[in-house]
Amino acid sequence: MTRIKCCGMTRVEDALFAAQRGADAIGVVLTARSKRKVSLAQAKTIVDAMPPFVSTVALCMDDEAEFVRAVIETVRPSLLQFHGAESDEWCAQFGQPYLKAIAMGEGASALPQLRAYPQAAGLLLDGHGLGEAGGSGKSFDWSLMPHDLRQPLILAGGLTSANVQAAIRIAKPWAVDVASGIESSPGIKDHGKMRDFIEAVRSAH
Ligand SMILES: O=C(O)c1ccccc1NCC(=O)[C@H](O)[C@H](O)COP(=O)(O)O
Predict the structure, then answer these.
(1) The domain that contains 53 carries what CATH number?
(2) Is the CB of residue 178 below 6 angstroms from any atom belonging to ligand 1?
(3) Of 81, 95, 103, 119, whose CB has the highest number of CB atoms within 10 Å?
(4) Tell me, what's a Pfam family for it (predicted)?
(5) Counting atoms of ligand 1 from 1, which one is nearest the CA of 177?
(6) Domains contained in the chain, number
(7) Is 102 close to ligand 1, i.e. is its CB under 6 Å away?
């Protein structure tokens, strides 16, 4: 079974809908680099509304360590996700499980990066270019997904209900992650698109 993370939640009702339809995780974006940025208080409200057994992921990108500590203390997410040029040691300093995003817009030349985060709980391969923010709607060559890594791999970037089954067939990821493919505008989730996406993933097997 492929797990599902619905990312870029800005409204409790959208996050609850995702959980009710069977998403395994929801994400809230805290970094100022995002069109989907929520405040610490908004993120806490969304995270607190989640039922048991739905993981919550807080996203940062090249933010100050002090800010990340405030996220941990206030939001209390299940996992952190780092999207910038942070090193493995930097991400691990918080003593929390974390996901590291790798910019696969660089193609095969990005693959060595996947071995640079031995302490990550998982690696999220995303379609955007190096230094760019996530949530771009850009996909990458799914056949580049490696199969010899110890950590679970999460496929992200430009996924929609129309292409996610092909993506799963080719990349065979542990999980898929989606933001823009389930939205009507940045941060505003379209419940019909969310339902179709989750159903497409569930019927991919
Ligand atoms: O979503 C954002 O706005 C964002 C901004 C800065 C860093 C990361 C961000 N999102 C990270 C995610 O995990 C997205 O879900 C992932 O990039 C996939 O996005 P999309 O291509 O729109 O499905």
Answers:
(1) 3.20.20.70
(2) yes
(3) 81
(4) PRAI
(5) 15
(6) 1
(7) no
